[in-house]
Amino acid sequence: MRVLLASPATGAYGGMEEFVIALAQQLSVCRGFEVRACFKLVPGATVSDTLRAQLEQSGITFVLVPRASRELVSQLWWADLVHAQAASPDICLLTRLLGRKLVLTVHNHLHGQRGARARSWRAALRLAHRRWYNSQFVRASWERSAPSIASEAFPAVARVDRQFFPLEGRSGFVFVARMVPGKGAETLLEAYQAAQLDPVRWPLRLVGEGPLLGRLKERFASHPGVRFEGFVTQQCKDELIARARWLIAVPDYLEAMGVTPIEARRKAVPCIVSLDGGLPEVAGSEALTCAPGDALGLARCLATAAHMSDEDYERRARAAYEGVARLLRPLEWYADSYRSVLGRRDDTIAAPRAG
Question: Whose CA is closest to 28, among 51, 62, 77?
Answer without folding.
Answer: 62
